[in-house]
Each structure stands twice: as structure tokens, then as C-alpha cells.
Design brief:
Rossmann fold, alpha/beta, 12 helices, about 45% helix, 8-stranded mixed β-sheet
Length: about 350
């Protein structure tokens, strides 16, 4: 193992213990209520009386306690929103001083590097798979809350400076993730939370490594047949960004080869599965493309014998930033609970 890998591994392994305040949130026997929100506010106020690193550490403690309140208050929308605001205020105060409540590292895969953020501790480890061309920022309002209950990791396929001429498929991306998890010694079982095209990655990973995966959350995720159906219908969406050398194809993804790799996947066994679909259409696709997308969403629910379907009535495809974020977090926590119960 070269020195870069040793450094990355050391930092990644240290992420769990160098996040001030996260242990406080995880260890406390809190419940959703005014006492918890008051504790967040009091912790934030204490930071104002401190200087230097002590102030930053206290703000980070407030950040993580607020994130824990978000997770605990998914059934109480008013308190959930209060916790969101408190976490956002703590984050702003940190960022204004060039600080962050978590660390980002880059894992060297040879031809390019991929950024990775790991938080929390516990099992199963939640792996966040972003949509096509997006990144870890998609999970900024989800990963912290989940991290107060278990270990989580997100990584960024879309920000990689992939050299010209390198062509990737979904299989390559799955192999890269396996390498990253091995280098960082992030042990299974895993629960995948996958948005949009990231659903292909999560489904292929699970199909090829069922012993490693304890649950899935498919968040407005691509059905294995979506592009074939769009192409069969002669829709414009069939050809968007599909060529690896297309300058708009920032992931250098060979969609045609990737479609063949996920074709035929229609089951993940009986592991817990939550499919989260949005009811609001948005302007990126035309009506016919939407019709096919929504027609296929219920079929994803049949992929497991232990599944739930959550429809977000007031959200569009990018549900991570929508008004029903509490339902997304609630769905992820349900899968974690089910996965833990299956291990007992």
C-alpha cells in the first residue's frame, strides 16, 4: 500500500473520532421534545462565550445535536423544522470561520480521485449513491441526521476529474466503490440510499454482492428498464448525455453498456426496501418520459418481499431538498431498524 493510500486510510478511519459533538448526540438518551431543542440552543449559545477551537468544537456539538433532533423528530414536523433551522445556523457560523463539522478526503483510484465523507459509527453502514452528474452535496440535509444513528459514507462520482478517453460503466463504478470501501476498511453490512441513476449502482452492487447488503432505499431511482423504455418510445431522453465522449457526460458513462449490465435485475431478495417516489413533475423531461418513469416506480417495490412505497405528494425528482425531507429520513431509519432486527 503506497503512502497516499496509507494517509487516506488513516484519515478515513479517524473520521469517526474527530467529529466533536457527534458522540454526544449518539450517546445521549434523547427524545423529540422542547428539552432537546432547548439543549441545542443552549449549546449554540455557549459557543458565543468561547474563543478559538473551543468555540468551534461547541458549535460542532450544537450542529450534531440538532442533526440528532432532526432524526428523532421526523414525526413532529414543527420540531423537525426547528431542528433544521438550528443545524443550519450552527453550520453557517462554522462556515463563516472556514470550519466544517465533518471532513472530506480523496481516495486515489489510480487514474483519478473520488471525494468521500464518512460520519458516525455503528452498523449497518449507510452508503449514499447520488444521481447522475451530482455529488455529495445532495445528502447535506440527510446524511448528518442518519449519522447520529449509525455510520454513513457518501462519495462523489460526479466531481472526479476523469481523464479524456476513460470510459466508465455502471460495473466500473461499482468496482470503484468496492475498492474504496476496502481501502477505508468500511465493513459490511451496507444499506444503500440511492437517488436517480444511483439506483443502477445500488441494484448492481446488491445483485453481485447480496451477502454485503442489508437494505435499500431507492429514492426516485432509475428502474433498470427506464432507458430502454424511453428509447423504445423514441423519446429525446433516450439520447441525452448517452455517449461517453459527450462533453455533457461528466461521468464519462457508457449508458448502452450500463443498461446491459443492469438488465434483468428484478429482485433483491427479502432485504428491507423502501421506494420513495415524487408526485410532482419537473421541467427536465417531457410528459411522455414522466409517464414511463412513474409507471415503472411501483415495479421497483416488487423487488423485495419486505418493501414499502412512499409517495411524496409535494416533491419533484430532487427530493433531497424538498419539503418532505422528514419522510425520506423516516424511510431510511425504517430500513436501518429492519436490517438490525434481521441481524439479531
Amino acid at each position: 500500500m503506497n503512502e497516499m493510500f496509507r494517509f487516506v486510510l488513516a484519515v478515513l478511519l479517524g473520521l469517526v473520532v474527530v467529529l466533536p459533538g457527534l458522540a454526544t448526540a449518539q450517546d445521549g438518551e434523547w427524545t423529540c421534545g422542547d428539552d432537546l431543542l432547548a439543549a441545542v440552543q443552549a449549546t449554540s449559545d455557549e459557543a458565543s462565550d468561547l474563543e478559538g477551537q473551543a468555540r468551534f468544537d461547541k458549535l460542532k456539538e450544537a450542529y450534531w445535536l440538532a442533526a440528532h433532533a432532526e432524526a428523532l423528530c421526523v414525526g413532529d414536523l414543527d420540531r423537525f423544522h426547528d431542528a433544521q433551522q438550528l443545524r443550519s445556523k450552527a453550520l453557517t457560523r462554522l462556515q463563516n470561520k472556514g470550519q466544517s463539522p465533518f471532513e472530506t478526503v480523496k481516495v486515489d483510484l489510480g487514474d483519478y480521485e473520488l471525494p468521500m465523507i464518512c460520519m458516525g459509527e455503528g452498523s449497518p453502514t449507510v452508503i449514499f449513491e447520488h444521481g447522475y452528474g451530482s455529488g455529495t452535496g445532495d445528502w447535506a440535509d440527510i446524511q448528518p441526521a442518519i449519522s447520529t444513528f449509525t455510520r454513513t459514507c457518501s462519495y462523489n462520482r460526479g466531481s472526479a476529474k476523469i481523464p479524456e478517453g476513460v470510459v466508465l460503466t455502471t460495473q466500473d463504478q461499482v468496482d470503484n466503490l468496492l475498492t474504496m470501501l476496502a481501502l477505508a476498511e468500511i465493513d459490511p453490512p451496507y444499506v444503500f440510499v440511492a437517488h436517480s441513476h444511483g439506483g443502477w449502482n445500488a441494484l448492481l452492487f446488491t445483485n453481485q454482492n447480496p451477502e454485503l447488503v442489508a437494505g435499500l432505499v431507492l429514492l426516485e431511482a432509475s428502474h433498470p428498464d427506464i432507458h430502454r423504455r424511453w428509447c423504445d418510445a423514441g423519446l429525446e431522453e433516450c439520447g441525452k448525455n448517452r455517449l461517453p465522449d459527450d462533453p455533457d457526460n461528466i461521468e464519462h458513462l457508457d449508458f448502452a453498456a450500463s443498461e446491459l449490465q443492469v438488465a434483468g435485475i428484478d429482485s433483491v431478495g427479502d432485504i428491507p426496501l423502501v421506494v420513495i417516489s415524487a408526485a410532482v413533475r419537473f421541467g427536465y423531461w417531457d410528459e411522455a418520459a414522466f409517464d414511463i418513469w412513474y409507471e415503472l416506480q411501483p415495479d421497483l417495490v416488487t423487488f423485495s418481499g419486505n418493501s414499502r412505497h412512499i409517495i411524496l405528494e409535494n416533491s419533484d425528482h430532487f427530493v433531497q431538498g424538498g419539503s418532505e425531507l422528514h419522510l425520506v429520513i423516516e424511510g431510511i431509519l425504517w430500513v436501518i431498524d429492519e436490517a438490525r432486527a434481521a441481524e439479531e
